[in-house]
Fold this protein.
Amino acid sequence: MNKTIRNTIITLICFLVYYMAMEYFKEIMQVIDRLFNYRLLSYFITYVIMGVPIFLGTYFIHNSSKIFDHLGLSKSILSGLILALIFVVPMFIGGFIFYPFNSNITIPNLIAGTIFAGLFEELYFRGFLFGQIFRTTKLGFIPSIIVGALVFASAHLYQSQDFSTMTGIFLTTFMGAIFFAWLFVEWDYNLWVPIFLHTFMNLSWNLFNVSDNALGNINSNIFRGLTIALAIVLTILYKRKHGQKLTINRNTLLRNGAIEDRVLVH
C-alpha cells in the first residue's frame, strides 16, 4: 500500500477511536477517581488512557517504540519554555492592565485548564493528528492540518449557544490550530513550543477575568494578536539569522514531493 495512504489511514482511524472514547471521559474518570480519590490525578490518568489509540497509532506508523520522539517530545523542553515565555508577554501585559485578577480560580482547575489542556491537546492534535500525516506522508501543510483544525475548532463550540459567538469561537480556534501547527513545524518539530505557548495563553486567560470562552473581546484579542504576531516574527527572524528557510512555504502547502519521509532521524 502507498505509504501516504497507509499512514494517513492509520492516523485518522486511531484519532477517530480516541475522539469517540472522549465521549466517555467523565465516566472513566469517575471510575479512576474511586481508586485514587484525587480528582486532578484522575483527570491526568484518564487523559493518558484516552491517548492509548494515539500511542498505538504512532507505534504502527513508525514500527518503533520511540513513540514520544515521533510525537515531538524528545526536543528541548527548556527551549520550548523560554520561547513560549517570550511570545506570551503581550497577553500577560494586556491581562494585567485591562482585567481584574480572577479570585475564584482554584489550583486544581488552573492546572487542568492550563497545563493539562496545553499538553494533551497539542500532543494529540498537533503531535499526532497533524504531525504524523505531515511528517510521514507527501501531503502538504494544508491537507495535513485541515482535519485536525476542523475537529479542534468544533471541540470548543460547547462554550456558547449563541450562533454568532459560536462562529467566532470556531474561527478563532481553527486559526489557533493552524498557528500552533506552524510553530511546531518551524521550530524543528519541537512540540514543547506549542505546548508551553498554549499553556501560557490559557494561563493568562484564567488568571485574569478576560472571558468565559475562547472568543474573548476586543482588548483581549488585540493582545492575543500581538502574541501571535510576536511568535511569527521572531520565528522568521531566527530562521533568517541562522540561514534556515521556512519549512512551510508555497512548495509545501499542498504537497511536498521533495521530502520522501519526514520521520525523525535518530
